[in-house]
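We treat protein structure as text, and this decision shapes the records that our systems exchange. Because each token names a local backbone shape, the row as a whole describes the fold. An entry from our holdings is shown next, in its original layout:
>
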Amino acid sequence: MTYIDGFVAAVPTANREAYLKHAAEMAVIMKEFGALKSVECWGDDVPDGKLTSFPMAVKKEADETVVFAWLVWPSKAVRDEGWARMMQDPRMQPGAHTMPFDGKRMIYGGFEVALES
């Protein structure tokens, strides 16, 4: 069964095009290392919460938009090997890309697909 890496970030709204360009470049690299699909979603209806919310999780500021993204991998083994190889790739080294958002506030994790319908 497939494996998913999920990401949530706060991106300056003014950086939308730069972010999407960056995400497209990253998708090419990730697919080289085994990802099947990359999906980027620009927040449209992401309410603030009182106890928890996407905006709270990424410390969204007034001039930012929440982005929700995921990568689909064929398996966790392919994902683990792909990430290990990607982190050695010169294109993934610090300074190789201008980040159009604050990566320190991004949340992410790997998820086993439990149900697909």
